[in-house]
């Protein structure tokens, strides 16, 4: 069989079908859409099934902790009567130390159920360690494919630490340099081994996070007799937000506002060898968050189950220095050493809380373990060694790849917002040449972008007018 890049890419549909035993074609509609809800329902698992599978694997049912001292600190910079209560879902308590264990538990369960001998995941993040840990519990072989090095062979410390964790759980780790070969190697490994594709973006990967939203809703109602006003989700590939929002809705929290938060890496190109080691965050940043929001099917499956614009009410950005600042504040004020990547949403929550009445509740829906290359000290030192200036100042003046700016005070930690319309327009530009969008297409787009058909028509007219 031909192993050239082009031929392997052409075999992607058949490789993926065999590696998931999921025929995505059955969900395709005429035109541009597909039946998203049917794809999710056909997984065969209820929310109760998912919860049972996770609990059997030491996953889920993590504590919801009120950050009283951090909330009090935020109120110092808010007007009287303002400064919402900040809570955090301590997902570091999961097996492998992050919320990704929820996703991995379902992928591994499905692989075992279907009789696969092993699993493969392409990830440089916490998901690799989660898949490796859950595969070990299930007695399955595991291969993790990472994009780790630049062309000089210098590895990002956070990714190297995650490789260490994967190997500690018995996984084989394939480390590659930045570039298009990652997906090529991933496909070849799936084809050569016949292993299961433990994709972040399959229905199993998303439904695993629905329990997170369910737990937030149920515990909030039990403790406070109401659902939280806001849940903030760190956004990269979109699955974290999608699953959490779906779980909240299934549990009755229909009016909880869902806010996406990412680290602002504007100006850095994620596929650039030069820029690869100029960033201090390897996930939860705009280099993933924006492209995967505006084109979710860029993932490793034909139709991604992570579709964040269906659920997102607001999208905010924070700078790298602010996340490091809030990571240290969490340790000093609350005795919780976590992150730093898991604290992206916490940085946003600290700023947003100051704009809300003090009786309102904001839930930050994840933490992650820290240590070794994942620790903020390692990240900051690595940036400094790469020529990035590290200083105190005004965070919103930070230039990714040029400097890291820590706020001199919590008063300077501010978020900025990306208008949702900008994201919606970027999404719709993929269809600017589809001149014959019918009513079914428009309905699909309105569901994808959580807006009305009339607004879709107006935005398409705007795009086509600009094209002229």
Automatic annotation (TrEMBL):
Q: Do you know which InterPro entries this protein is assigned to?
A: AKP_thiolase_beta, Cys_Synth/Cystath_Beta-Synth, TrpB-like_PALP, TrpB-like_PALP_sf
Name the keywords, alphabetized: Acyltransferase, Pyridoxal phosphate, Transferase
Q: Which Pfam families match?
A: PALP (PF00291)
The EC number(s) given in the record are 2.3.1.263
Q: Which domain of life is it from?
A: Bacteria
Q: Acyltransferase among the record's keywords?
A: yes
Gene Ontology molecular function: any one: acyltransferase activity
| UniProt xrefs under SUPFAM superfamilies | Tryptophan synthase beta subunit-like PLP-dependent enzymes
Cofactor dependence is on: pyridoxal 5'-phosphate
Gene Ontology biological process terms, A to Z: alpha-amino acid metabolic process
Q: Which residues form the Tryptophan synthase beta chain-like PALP domain?
A: 57-364
- The name this protein carries in UniProt is 2-amino-4-oxopentanoate thiolase subunit OrtB
Give the species. Peloplasma aerotolerans
Q: What does the record give as the organism's lineage?
A: Bacteria, Bacillati, Mycoplasmatota, Mollicutes, Acholeplasmatales
Encoding gene per record? ortB
């Amino acid at each position: 069989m031909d192993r050239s890049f082009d031929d392997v890419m052409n075999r992607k549909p058949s490789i993926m079908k065999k590696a998931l035993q999921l025929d995505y074609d059955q969900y395709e509609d005429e035109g541009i859409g597909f039946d998203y809800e049917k794809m999710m329902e056909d997984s065969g698992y209820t929310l109760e099934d998912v919860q049972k599978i996770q609990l059997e694997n030491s996953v889920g049912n993590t504590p919801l902790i009120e950050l009283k001292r951090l909330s009090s600190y935020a109120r110092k910079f808010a007007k009287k009567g303002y400064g919402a209560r900040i809570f955090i879902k301590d997902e570091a308590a999961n097996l492998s130390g992050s919320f990704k264990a929820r996703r991995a538990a379902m992928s591994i369960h499905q692989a075992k159920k279907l009789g696969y001998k092993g699993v493969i995941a392409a990830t440089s993040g916490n998901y690799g360690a989660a898949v490796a840990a859950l595969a070990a519990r299930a007695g399955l072989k595991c291969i993790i494919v990472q994009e780790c090095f630049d062309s000089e062979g210098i590895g990002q410390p956070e990714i190297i630490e995650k490789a260490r964790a994967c190997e500690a759980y018995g996984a084989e780790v394939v480390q590659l340099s930045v570039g298009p070969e990652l997906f090529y190697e991933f496909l070849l490994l799936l084809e050569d081994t016949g292993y299961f594709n433990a994709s972040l973006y399959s229905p199993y990967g998303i439904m695993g996070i629905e329990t997170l939203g369910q737990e937030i809703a149920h515990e909030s109602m039990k403790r406070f007799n109401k659902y939280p006003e806001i849940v903030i989700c760190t956004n990269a590939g979109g699955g974290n937000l999608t699953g959490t929002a779906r779980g909240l809705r299934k549990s009755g929290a229909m009016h909880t506002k869902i806010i996406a938060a990412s680290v602002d890496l504007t100006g850095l190109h994620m596929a650039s060898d030069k820029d690869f080691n100029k960033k201090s965050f390897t996930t939860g940043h705009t280099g993933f968050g924006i492209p995967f929001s505006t084109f979710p099917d860029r993932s490793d499956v034909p139709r991604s189950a992570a579709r964040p614009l269906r659920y997102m009410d607001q999208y905010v950005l924070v700078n790298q220095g602010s996340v490091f600042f809030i990571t240290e504040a969490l340790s000093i004020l609350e005795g919780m050493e976590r992150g730093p990547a898991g604290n992206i949403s916490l940085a946003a929550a600290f700023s947003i809380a100051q704009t809300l009445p003090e009786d309102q509740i904001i839930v930050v829906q994840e933490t992650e373990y820290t240590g070794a290359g994942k620790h903020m000290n390692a990240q900051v030192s690595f940036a400094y060694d790469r020529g990035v200036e590290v200083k105190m100042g005004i965070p919103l003046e930070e230039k990714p790849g040029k400097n890291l700016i820590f706020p001199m005070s919590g008063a300077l930690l501010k978020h900025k917002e990306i208008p949702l319309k900008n994201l919606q327009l970027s999404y719709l530009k993929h269809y600017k040449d589809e001149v014959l969008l019918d009513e079914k297409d428009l309905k699909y787009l309105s569901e994808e972008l959580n807006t009305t058909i009339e607004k879709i028509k107006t935005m398409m007219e705007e795009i086509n007018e600009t094209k002229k």
